[in-house]
Model the fold of this input.
Amino acid sequence: KKMQEKKEEDIKARELLQELKGKEDVTVDGKHIKLYANIGGVKDVASVLANDAAGIGLFRSEFLYLEADNYPNEEAQFQAYKTVAENMAGKKVIIRTLDIGADKQIDYFDMAHEENPAMGYRAIRICLDRPEVFKTQLRALYRASYYGTIAIMFPMIISVNEVKKIKEIIAEVKAGLDADGIPYKDVELGIMIETPAAVMISDLLAKEVDFFSIGTNDLTQYTLAIDRQNPKLDNIYDSHHEAVLRMLKMVVDNGHKEGCWVGICGELGADETLTETFLRMGFDELSVSPSMILRIRDKIRNTDLSVK
Ligand code: PEP
Ligand code: MG
Done:
């Protein structure tokens, strides 16, 4: 009997959520927020559309590399990014550049063993150290930008200098496309805020980019000094830690002062118990797994920020 009741509840909940399709992501008192989806590959776009997300807030592009036996070439990457951009039909698609190392190892990158890989050779550090790999991805991304609304963001940033180097490489890539007569569009550039260093200099970083997207999974791990993959520490891994929440607010305020929009793409973005807090902090975007979109929409639409 209990199982039957639970089943009926689930069906009712699903029906309610279906009603929310096509509805705006707006609070009772009229505050809008962008609700985007996180994906790991081209095939996930179907569930993004089925769940009515307004865009893609995090495309973890490393899956193109993880699924291959060798470096995916420019053409293969271009086709993947173009397909996602076209299928999203003009809605924003934020693609994160290669984020490997730490928990994501790839044999053909031939990386040396590290004692402490989470703090090691990973993400943007590898890309800046191996510009030929980075340029291939950027060229594919810029080529694909012509077919939709692509934005690019960079993982594991700790300094302004890294962002300046990235921009220099982008300028070279664009010059190459110009020389070859290949069209591309203006692309919004953003960074992931997922290190305490990036939080503390977010006022300076905000002058360099169009948007911030907070990677709360890594930010929490580095702030609390708790390995996100160590189950022994699960009982002290406090995703609502005041230190993390203060950092989120700091990043929103510093971003907004310089005209950057600010979102969250880490798991915390889908925490319904914090949706109201995020709205009050002033976040512009939340990017969550496709299956959470309509639940968060329901939460947003039932929130009234005029009630203290
Ligand atoms: C994060 O760190 O919060 C994030 C979104 O990136 P990933 O989980 O892929 O490291
Ligand atoms: Mg991360």
In short: The first strand starts at residue 34 and ends at 39. The mean pLDDT is 96. The chain has 13 helices and eight strands.
